User: Fold this.
Amino acid sequence: MTDNARSERMAKEKNILPSHYRTILNRNLGIFLKDAVRTALTNPPQAYFFLKALRWQRKAARIRAKWQRDGVNIPPIIIFSVTTRCNLSCSGCYAQALHPPSENEMSEAEIRRMMSEARELGVSFFVIAGGEPFLRPEIMEIMKDFPEILFLVFTNGLLIDQEMLGRFKKQRNVVPMVSLEGHADDTDGRRGEGVHQFLQKLIGKLRKQGIFFGTSLTITRPTFNTLTGHQFVKNLVQAGCRFFLYLEYTPTVQGTEELVLTSVERARLMSLTDSFRREFSALFFAIPGAEAEVGGCLAAGRGFVHVTAEGDMEPCPFASFSDSNLRDSSLKDALQSRLLEVIRQHPENLKVTEGGCTLWKRRAWVESLLDGCKEKDNGTGISDQKSQNCEGT
Assistant:
């Protein structure tokens, strides 16, 4: 891409995005890490790591700002679904619905290349998802070699054994996020008999080892009162949990729309997380509600992108559309994909709405952009309509 083309593109995005957008996002990431230091004060080695991570985040923000001035958009966060395989079959699982098992997952070398590029570009955080990430056991060794990056690993916890607990204790840049659904009936009902009991024992081991860990809570209409109950939260904090991430259910499985939070529940969730933050020594976030505080949905490189197990660059895990793959291009080039760019240029379509993921609700629009962008990028004789689609009009 020429310098003029980059300048024109950046001018267009600057006219659309608030001038202070990235400042707010970087500030919030800094606040997150400062709060992480505070919540880890009883665990000095972890608190020291978060302090170092805060310094890296400031440096990384400067690196991203430099790229931005050169017309290259770099998000601070990459969500990487390291595998499509899982050792559970949870009802309503978005990953299984949108990304079926594949035999063509990125190799260890390809993953290392991506993470090395990400570090050089100023990426601060990786969210490691799946499937079940620890079905790729090499991921622990890979993360060890990138100590500047903070890795949040979303796991069902069933593969965490004593050896892995020892690695968590040494690798402070890895934060396990154990998935729970609520009490025993809720967790076992969705994940399988005996899972809740296993996870309660695991949580006890994580605390005993002094490991900083969190929990991922997919919140639905039926589980709202349980997951936001004061006693439920208090019990987990007392058990050592220091990071609560509430994820609003997105109905990727047809017929599950009744599980989506109501507008009243969504507002209540944001209020409760603020209250919990003041009362407990732990981090509390609700997604996508928290995104509204920084100007709407953060997908498509505004705050994060999603990389699939096969290397496809996608706007987010719920918008499984891609016009670039890391096996065919560098991470920097893939981040400048035409699809991601056009989505960013339409913030009116990225406002946080009811029903979980914003782009899932607008997936028909994203798919129409993909069709147009692919034809345009192929250099074929495209129709005016396709060209308009690629521009998002």
